[in-house]
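Weekly modeling sync, notes
Attendees: AB, CL, MP (scribe)

Item 1: holo prediction request
CL wants a bound-state model with MTE before deciding which constructs to order. AB pointed out that an apo prediction alone won't tell us much about the pocket. Agreed to run with the ligand included and paste results into these notes for async review.

Input as submitted:
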Amino acid sequence: MGELEKTEAANLREETVAGNGLIHRRALLRTALFSAGIAAASAGTARADDSVGADAPEWMKTPGKPFSAYGTPSHWQEKVQRIFTIAPGRAGTGVSRTPLHLLEGTITPAGLHFERHHNGVPDIDPGKHELYIHGMVKRPLAFSLDALMRYPMETQIRFIECSGNSGIFSQPQAAQVTAGELNGLLSCSEWTGVKLFTLLADAGITKDAKWVIAEGADAAAMSRSIPLEKCMDDAMIALYQNGEAIRPEQGFPMRLLLPGFEGNMNVKWLRRLNVTDAPVDARDETSHYTELMPGGKARQFMFAQGAKSAILKPSFGMSMKGPGLYEISGLAWSGAGRVSKVEVSADGGKSWGAAALTGPVLPKALTRFRMAWNWKGQPSTLMSRATDETGVTQPTRAAWIAEYAPGQGYHFNGIQSWDIAADGTVKNVYA
Ligand SMILES: Nc1nc2c(c(=O)[nH]1)N[C@H]1C(S)=C(S)[C@@H](COP(=O)(O)O)O[C@H]1N2
Ligand SMILES: [Mo]
């Protein structure tokens, strides 16, 4: 070991934030050991100064392809697809998941937003679709899409998570599937549309109104009762997703966005809002989306998604490429507001270090966390736990399981764990 390496090794030791090799990220950003620690970086560097010769790659010898009217991802990326449990195109009822472990940053590309349809994706003619606001209002209103477009708009970056997301963790055996299969009923978009408050104010809510029943224009006519308070707070009629008209799968031409609330309340293809003084006990809030408790009673109306996080790199299906420096990265979120802290453990929860929150930390949005790791090749158990700005921290899986009747899988937000074996393979475990 030369002098420089010795100093760097000492620096890394000083940067320790928790057991089993977790170090402060600044060590990764400045260490001279980094390129040595990632074998892949070194081989080609000497060629960088080379001028282009006869051995130039194919793509430098002929002109490239022409422009495209609507771009698509590189064909080299064709494995980055939604994850299906039923074959794509076979049926319109069920789910497809976002491949979270194959993406970076915090925004989900529209074409990879998870899907949950109760009876397929309707092909709605935007020129014929109307949104009605009626019931306990002074002026019942009907809005064409053109009429809605004339209202002042706002933009919110928010996640949507199905209440059934990660329900697989309620099963007794840890499933050996990718992080996308475990947690991919979760996506985050930039939504633009009209604040629901504005429309309700226009219609004039009567004194005794307390609930709003939202109904979709799909063949399931999905309906949910929503507290009026939420509708007057941050609810939105979303018309745009990541800058373009909302995709058919997400509710074209309009959906209800209820930031932080369980996915099913974000009614897609929204056709009416019926203002009432009581919930209607719609099929979609009695036959499911209730939580069975140990005593046999069921909880109804669990609105906000809990504080939660998952490590995506490394995760099942990936493997460590030998001892060295790694960046552990994942997503954290909470339906109650901003993520205030994410802690990572490499020793199965014995010690924890604070991860860096990189990129925007927005309320009710996916937040990227990163932690540096000096992995020496020892078997390790990686975990992450999020705390939100209301002070709520993710429970352990065992604590979460104890709260419900066996098999109840809605709103799972327990701590997740990956076992890293000495050979670098990654396994889902209940630690
Ligand atoms: N009209 C209607 N709205 C709906 C649904 C539906 O089937 N029909 N599915 C709900 C469920 S269960 C979820 S989790 C979210 C999924 O939204 P996404 O498909 O845009 O991801 O939409 C909700 N809104
Ligand atoms: Mo859902």
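Recorded for review: Residues 116, 162-164, 263-264 surround molybdenum atom (ligand 2) (CB under 6 Å).
Action items: CL to compare against the apo run; MP to circulate these notes.
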